[in-house]
Specification:
By secondary structure, the chain is mainly alpha-helical. It folds into three domains: 1-33; 35-164, no CATH class; 166-281, no CATH class. Helix content is 72%, strand content 4%. α10 (215-233) packs antiparallel against α11 (238-257). The protein starts with a helix and ends in a 6-residue tail after the last helix.
């Protein structure tokens, strides 16, 4: 028996051939059971994962600039999981979550004590409660999607905290968030003024949601933009500071237009935190 195993290990070409055979069989099975569009969607996800893995910081900046715009692709599902369509934005979020999680595991193995950060325990408790709530949710698959989006955003936060980027890189990240919000905010204001697009109604009042699939999701995104605009405003001058202030005010006003109570509560907490004297995010 030992002779066979040693002979197996001495064949340098055998393992690559075996791996190629398994990959070819998997690809053939996928092509036979999935549509070409679905296969392309998952290949897109794998490529996105590799890009996130190769340069996590650059991927974070790119996602910050384009994530909100990609929310508009929820009407273009590329793949189907559990009866729910996955849009390009959803697939990109999953790829970023996997790549960011991989990056954080490497940081932990290198000795970074991520679990000691003050936000980790509250977030784990929140995730536990959120996952328990899926047991009585009428549409648990949508809840899972929101949880995964939250986890991707929190992993992005952990990457920034652990990596401690230099001021120039931090300004680049905050600037990408602010610039990427211009189109969704403008479209949301267009909805509010002209009552166009898919507008939800809450007790007779129209709720804006911009390119997002829900006013609540849009509201939480806007709170993030208010925080980013405030932090960026402290680090820029001149015309850039003026434009950042305008975006921040527009985001603040748009939170109110979503009529999302949870988003307004998050905005109130943010305002209280800033008023308490924390001028950095």
């Amino acid at each position: 028996m030992s002779t066979d195993s040693s002979a197996f290990s001495r064949s340098p070409i055998l393992l690559p051939l075996l791996g190629a055979g398994v990959a070819a069989a998997s690809a053939a099975a996928a092509a036979a059971t999935l549509s070409p569009l679905s296969v392309g969607a998952w290949l897109f996800g794998v490529l996105a994962l590799l890009l996130v893995r190769s340069n996590t910081e650059l991927a974070l900046v790119g996602l910050a600039a384009t994530r909100a715009t990609l929310e508009g692709t929820h009407v273009l599902p590329l793949a189907n999981v559990g009866g729910n369509g996955l849009s390009p934005g959803d697939i990109l979020s999953l790829a970023f979550l996997a790549g960011a999680g991989w990056h954080l595991v490497d940081e932990a193995r290198a000795g970074t004590r991520i679990w000691r950060l003050p936000t980790v325990v509250p977030v784990l408790l929140f995730l536990g409660i959120a996952m328990f709530s899926l047991s009585y949710s009428p549409v648990p698959s949508l809840g899972v999607r929101d949880i995964l989006k939250f986890m991707a955003a929190y992993c992005a936060f952990l990457i920034v905290v652990v990596g401690r980027p230099e001021p120039r890189r931090l300004r680049m990240l905050l600037g990408a968030l602010v610039i990427g919000s211009v189109m969704p905010i403008c479209y949301g204001l267009f909805e509010a003024v002209f009552s166009k697009g898919e507008v939800n109604v809450f007790y007779g009042w129209a709720r804006v949601q911009s390119v997002f699939d829900s006013p609540n999701t849009y509201g939480f995104y806007l709170v993030t933009i208010v925080a980013a605009a405030w932090a960026l405003r402290q680090q820029v001058t001149g015309r850039a500071r003026t434009l950042t202030t305008i975006v921040g005010i527009a985001a603040f006003s748009s939170v109110l237009l979503t009529l999302s109570r949870n988003s307004m509560a998050a905005l109130a907490i943010l305002v209280l935190s800033i008023g308490w004297g924390h001028r950095s995010v």
